[in-house]
Amino acid sequence: MKFKWILLTSFTLMSALSFRPIHAGTEPHRIEISAKRFEFSPSEITVKKGEPVELVIQSSDVTHGLQFADLDQKVQINKGTPATLSFTPEKVGDFTGQCFIFCGTGHGQMALTLHVVE
């Protein structure tokens, strides 16, 4: 009987010491972006490393895409339907997002610069 009490007490103590309170997650930094031939507006955004980001992108003319190859992030943006790109940047730097769906002669210049800071 004494052994069971020691075992139960040990288990209870270990459980209490390993308890970690659960904190509500950080709400993502929401940024609204518009896409149209041949630009994203705004064309530059700044976010913090390690903080969740939610880019909500709306196309006003045709289907576009946004790809940050260095961050392994990609989303298709259909006209009239907002697209959401959610991620948490894990490295500091400047990253260029490009439209990856051909949208006309200025397609190559359609870019969005993402600055990730500490």
UniProtKB/TrEMBL annotation:
Compartments, record wording? Cell envelope
Can you tell which superkingdom this protein's organism belongs to? Bacteria
- What keyword terms does UniProt attach to this protein? Copper, Metal-binding, Signal
* UniProt keyword annotation of Signal present: yes
Q: Name one GO cellular component term.
A: membrane
Keyword Signal part of the UniProt annotation: yes
Task: Give the signal sequence positions.
Answer: 1-24
For this protein, the record's InterPro entries field holds: CcO_II-like_C, Copper_CuA, Cupredoxin, EfeO_Cupredoxin, NosZ/Cyto_c_oxidase_sub2
Domain Cytochrome oxidase subunit II copper A binding residues, every copy: 1-118
Q: What is its main location?
A: other
Task: Enumerate the Pfam families for this protein.
Answer: Cupredoxin_1
Offer an example of a GO molecular function term for this protein: copper ion binding
Name the chain's protein.
Cytochrome c oxidase subunit II
Lineage runs: Bacteria, Pseudomonadati, Acidobacteriota, Terriglobia, Terriglobales
